[in-house]
Structures are given as C-alpha cells and as structure tokens.
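Input chain follows. Return structure tokens only.
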Amino acid sequence: MSLNKVILIGNVGKDPDVRYFDSGSAMANFSLATSERGYTLANGTVVPERTEWHNIVVRRDQVAFVEKWVKKGSSVYVEGKLRTRTYDDQNGVKRYVTEIYADRVDFYSSGRREDSPLNQSAQSTGSSDAKQSAQPSQPVQPYDANNDADDLPF
C-alpha cells in the first residue's frame, strides 16, 4: 500500500495564473509560501525562520474558485498529491520541477480576529468606541429553565 498526500497551509505568493484550453478545460498555477518559526536552542544558537515555496497546480472544478477568490497574500489550505516532472532546458541541462496537484483549495483562517472589520475600525479611530457600538443595546439575560419552559418551540 502507498499514499501520496500533501497538506499545506500558507500564503499565496502571487495572483494565480489561469489558462483555458480549446478542450474546455482549465488549469491554474500559483506559488504558496509555508514558514517554520525561528527559535533559539538551549545553548543560545539562533535558528532563523525558514520559508519554503511550493508550486501549486489546480485543475477541474477548483479552478473557478481559485480564479475568482484566491489572490496574492490569501491564506489557503491546499490538499493534493506531490508530483515531480523533468525537462531539458535550452542548454540541454535536465531540470526537475516538484508540484502539488491540488485536489482541494480552501481559505484558511487561524481564528485570530485582528483583521476583522470591527477591529480595523476601532484601530483607525484610536478608541474602543467601535467595539462598544457593536454590543447589543439590551443586556442578554441568562437562560432560566424554570421561567422559560413554556416558551420552548418543541
């Protein structure tokens, strides 16, 4: 048994290059950067951050999503297969290219809310007034099973 599966989460390095063919099929290519954090060893040696660049190839029904929504800087989740191909360049030197043939491409969110519109408007005004205005005007009452038992919809 064997398995060829790659899962990457990273940032798109450039807008996807989408090509359409006479057969009606389409293909998209883009680069994806994944980074490992830098750290310091116990002996004081500093290991710097390391960024790897991956060539992503998208085909079939995922191309429409990539063309419409994926842009430079987008954080995406990519799932696919690793493929290596070879070719001879113009000088006759054999070159190797490793690509990820994506089966799935989705947006990825780390769960941080730093980039939300609410926080951006609060940062631009320099106060927390925007956060206050987003709060409900009436306080939310805790659920009390004894008082609300007759109000249940089932």
